[in-house]
Predict the structure.
Amino acid sequence: LICFIIKVKKVTMQNMKAVVCPEYGSPEVLSIEEVSKPSPKAGEILIKIKACSVSVADRRLRAFDVPAQVWIPARLALGLRKPKKPILGVEISGIVEELGENCSRFKPGDEVFSANLTHFGGYAEYVCLPEDGPISLKPSNLTFTEAAAVPTGARTALHFLKKGQIEKGQKILIYGASGSVGTYAVQLAKRFGAEVTAICSGKNIPMVRAIGADKAVDYKQENFTQDLGQYDILFMAVDKWPFSEAINFLKDGGYYVNITQPIPSIRMMLTSAFGKKKLVLGENVSPGPDGLILIKELIEKGKIRPVIDRVYQLEEIVVAHRYVDMGHKAGNVVIEI
Ligand SMILES: NC(=O)c1ccc[n+]([C@@H]2O[C@H](COP(=O)([O-])OP(=O)(O)OC[C@H]3O[C@@H](n4cnc5c(N)ncnc54)[C@H](OP(=O)(O)O)[C@@H]3O)[C@@H](O)[C@H]2O)c1
């Protein structure tokens, strides 16, 4: 009997709670299950997760909602009939619990945050991640809930602003300024010394002004373009404004940056081949930790901060996904674990 109790206890201790996505579909495909607790391989750290976000990447993967041009390669990479990695969750905050062999960047007890876009696994009590990936010590002035709302949006905004060669004194237009990437793009562009015009719906104008936008325009208003000028950078954080119209507001020599489109349209290719306007399209953000370390420092200096729309508990994951599916979150949605 004692042996049996010890065995049961051991098995229980090696399990964890996780949200599993066994098939592509609506938020209702998600369910909470007991799964094996992972243990770190060489080069990996085991993190006890305190919070994760419900990002656009999570909802895209759950619903298999990807641009038509990349449907086949994405299906091959992510799973033909169902997700290869059924535990979603691409950004987290938590505490390092155990180190695999050859790990030296962190020690048990370190408070960290991470963007695990290729590993997923954030909708769980524990995850193992390579320690040389986009992981950093968490900003000391943020709670775990706040920190989970940072890594993907902030790293993406930083990466694409740099690709757009942002410089002090430039004029930048950020379309979709109220979303996760958009709210970081507004704040980081201001830190680079640019003059920021933010485009969002009227209800979010006070928020984007509060985080630093010099001018905010409601895209729902008829003729919202009439007061726009000419910009050095058009930063498309949301792909809802046709290229053929937007490009008229870009100066010659300026950059059209679209983080959502991996492959250019014919019109885009012709514009960049024969015109003076340059294109930067969606691509994977570099995998190392440098961007996140810089972002941690900016947050600790009070230069940028996360915008959090709603906070849910793990048990409310279906409701949280339904909300993010609507496409109008303001900043970020976080799950506490
Ligand atoms: N390339 C990469 O590495 C990378 C990384 C992260 C994300 N992404 C992509 O970037 C996109 C944005 O991600 P996100 O996390 O920032 O999205 P998000 O937080 O879901 O963006 C939501 C925002 O979109 C705005 N919006 C919705 N319809 C709009 C419209 N017609 N015109 C203007 N704004 C509109 C909403 O503003 P209102 O409520 O004010 O309408 C809302 O605040 C996604 O397509 C995502 O897949 C790419």
In short: The chain has a mean pLDDT of 94. Residues 55-56, 60, 152-153, 156, 175-176, 178-182, 200-201, 204, 219, 237-238, 240, 259-260, 282, 284-285, 327-330 surround NAP (CB under 6 Å).
